[in-house]
Write a structure and sequence with these properties.
With 435 residues, this protein is α+β, with helices and mostly antiparallel strands. The protein has helices at residues 22-27, 29-62, 69-95, 111-120, 122-165, 180-216, 222-276, 282-306, 309-314, 316-326, 343-364, 398-408, and strands spanning 171-172, 175-176, 331-336, 369-376, 379-386, 413-417, 424-431. The strands form two sheets. It has a five-stranded mixed sheet. It has a two-stranded antiparallel ribbon with strand order 1-2. The protein is elongated and about 135 Å long.
């Protein structure tokens, strides 16, 4: 029969449970794992703070010299991401606390633009703040825990040590230890310090975990913002789907249906002529054959625009090259998706690239475009860049707003960086493979 641990006995932040009884808490593995974690804070904090500050200082110092500080800053940001991953692993192994990561922005071919993206990214900023605070916070937590354990253990064993030394004139901080009463009081004080150590460890672990969750985890409010955006875009998504249905009906009615009606009329004329002039229907059959081919081409174009078969069979890396080849603007395409995402995400990714290239061809006035599709940290990143005139604004364009609605339907995000004069960078973040 198991006994449930009361909520009050659990460490804050989801750490391992601490027993409420002081003696059991002192012997609990959670206390010693928490103490080990806090004692490591000083060493790990000093190392991470030194590496980060060194990288930042060299980035600033080398920036005037042909922008040599830019690659140093890029390296510093990614080293900080790696150190953050190590820290989250330490919290998980020693405290049982799982902190979800904030993914890094996808890499960009332009290092200057990517350096600016990293500099503005809230995840990078918060991770940097945690690594700067790691040294002073680690000194505080490690110092308190070490002081309690060392001072408490020293006072507790002091009477035995004095008796074994045989020195009646021994002193501690100016206090004579010849009296047994004094030695007993000091031993009692040491026992009290050791018994209160688990409570102090629990409080420091709660503080440490709270700081780590706030600075190493996902950006606060991101989930609430996404839920709010989903609620705001729900009606627009329904309207978009309805508009798409009407467009398909219109394309079928005005295109394919007209071809089939024309085909039926031509075959009817050929049938009527065959009764009186069997040898004179060749031109009508040629016309009917051409109309049938036009109808097939129309249907293929419609199906390709909805969901090409190659996308279902082989994924984005096989479907996107054909899409790029049909674009009138030359496209440099890079696809690196080792594990296929969910079909709905894959379809939306294809739709995003298709609509983005259509916008580039129609409105951007670009000479070249770049499409990059990569998977990183179980997230599918799609980046479409063109060297056109820029000035694209999702708030004033139905095409970009429709893309944002489609992306938000699977809890994704779309951002557009399009200064006047260009270039335009469209970045889409979609949930990749499931956990």
């Amino acid at each position: 029969m198991s006994t449930a641990v009361p909520p009050s006995a659990r460490a804050a932040g989801g750490a391992r449970p601490f027993p409420a009884d002081p003696l059991r808490a002192f012997a609990s593995p959670a206390t010693w794992l928490g103490a080990a974690h806090l004692l490591l804070d000083a060493f790990i904090g000093a190392a991470t703070c030194f590496l980060l500050l060194a990288g930042l200082c060299w980035s600033v110092l080398l920036l005037p010299f042909a922008l040599l500080g830019v690659p140093v800053w890029l390296l510093t940001a990614w080293v900080g991401a790696g150190l953050g991953a190590i820290e989250r692993a330490r919290y998980r192994l020693l405290l049982g606390v799982v902190i979800d990561p904030q993914p890094m922005p996808p890499a960009h071919r332009n290092p200057l633009r990517y350096a600016g993206v990293l500099l503005r990214d809230p995840g990078v900023q918060r991770r940097t703040a945690h690594q700067v605070l790691a040294a002073p916070l680690g000194m505080l937590t490690s110092g308190i825990v070490y002081g309690l354990l060392a001072f408490g253990a020293t006072l507790l064993v002091l009477p035995v040590a004095v008796l074994m030394s045989g020195n009646p004139d021994a002193h501690l901080f100016g206090i004579p230890l010849a009296s047994g009463t004094v030695r007993g009081l000091l031993a009692g004080l040491g026992l009290i310090l050791l018994l209160v150590t688990p409570a102090v460890v629990r409080a420091l672990v709660a503080l440490d975990v709270a700081v780590a969750r706030a600075l190493l985890g996902p950006v606060p409010g991101a989930l609430a913002a996404r839920v709010g955006e989903l609620e705001r875009s729900r009606a627009r998504v329904v309207d978009s789907v309805e508009a798409e249905r009407r467009r398909i009906e219109r394309d079928l009615h005005d295109g394919t249906q007209q071809h089939l009606v024309s085909l039926a009329m031509t075959l009817g004329r050929a049938k009527a002529r065959y009764r009186t002039e069997p040898d004179g229907i060749g031109d009508l059959l040629d016309e009917a054959h051409q109309q049938a081919k036009d109808a097939v081409v129309e249907l293929r174009g419609l199906i390709r625009g909805l969901h090409p078969p190659v996308l279902s069979d082989r994924g984005l890396d096989a479907a996107l090259p054909a899409l790029a080849a049909r674009c009138p603007v030359p496209v440099d395409l890079t696809v690196d998706v080792p594990v296929r995402p969910a079909p709905a995400v894959e379809a939306i990714g294809y739709f995003v690239v298709s609509e983005a290239l259509t916008n580039v061809a129609k409105h951007a006035g670009a000479a070249r475009a770049t499409v990059t599709v990569v998977e990183s940290d179980r997230t599918l990143w799609i980046t479409v860049t063109d060297d056109g005139r820029g000035g694209a604004d999702p708030a004033h364009g139905t095409g970009l707003r429709g893309l944002a609605d489609r992306v938000s339907g699977v809890d994704g995000q779309l951002s557009v960086d399009s200064p006047v004069g260009g270039p335009t960078v469209l970045t889409v973040e979609l949930p990749g493979r499931p956990l």
